[in-house]
Design brief:
This protein is of the alpha/beta class and about 260 residues long. The protein has a single domain (about 1-255), classed as Alpha/Beta hydrolase fold, catalytic domain (Rossmann fold, 3-Layer(aba) Sandwich), CATH 3.40.50. The chain is built from nine helices and seven strands, in the order H-E-E-H-E-H-E-H-E-H-H-H-H-E-E-H. It has helices spanning about 5-10, 35-40, 70-90, 100-115, 135-140, 145-155, 160-165, 165-185, 240-255, and strands at about 10-15, 25-30, 50-55, 90-95, 120-125, 200-205, 225-230. A seven-stranded mixed beta sheet has the order 1-3-2-4-5-6-7, with helices on both faces. The chain starts with 5 loop residues before the first helix and ends with a helix. One of its GO terms (molecular function) is fatty acyl-[ACP] hydrolase activity.
Length: about 260
Amino acid sequence: VFLFSLGMEKVVACSYKRPNALYRLICFPWAGGGTSRLARWGRLFSSSIEVYSVRLPGRECRINEPFAQDMTSVVNEITSVLLKDLQEKPFAFFGHSFGSYISFAVALHLKEKYGLEPIHLFISGAHAPHSEAFLPIKRLHDVEDEAIIAHTKILGGTPFELLQSEDLRKNLILTLKEDLRVLQTFSFEKAERNIPLSCDITCFDGSEDTAHDLEAWNGVTSGDVSIYKLPGGHFYLLEPSNEIFLTKHITICLEYADL
């Protein structure tokens, strides 16, 4: 019998359980995001890959829990819940936007503390964490609610009806602000001699999104870094044709990682 522990149920959504999968793909959603969209990717992968989608406090079944205060507590919680699973079989991380920074912070912690590393890191819509371009994003949480709504509309990806309903809108703004507050507490200074990771990194970006400093991801790994631009804006990954490209590409990377 394949049972999720209570901590696991709380922190991870796994819509398509595959206990015999060869690999696990751990997905980290965007700021203000829940687990459902990336958890559904499970159906697009073959039986060799099981998909987990990470859930932070303050949303979905964790709506009554206080939001995370900082990146350290986010990383510690995710690590403690997932550690056993990550030691069990090869795993990769996929993060979009805010989720990219969390996935990188978790990867750093796993490497430093446990000598564990993803076989591949998939980054989407995000500057490298030591890039100058990343700094303005860290200041976003202080802005007015209306500015956040305007920013959300420009980015797209948020259903219009969410922004129409007063309660849903308030909740979305609050969650976004809290997620951005977590981002403020994260800093990664790249030491000249110490390249923290050795896995390959693939960076994806929407061709019409604000350009991200993807080249700088070369500075955090001794592995290869590849860059792909897919049609669309910041939420290009929600387009069905792009979802198919992403899941096929991720599958190839995971299946060849062991060769």
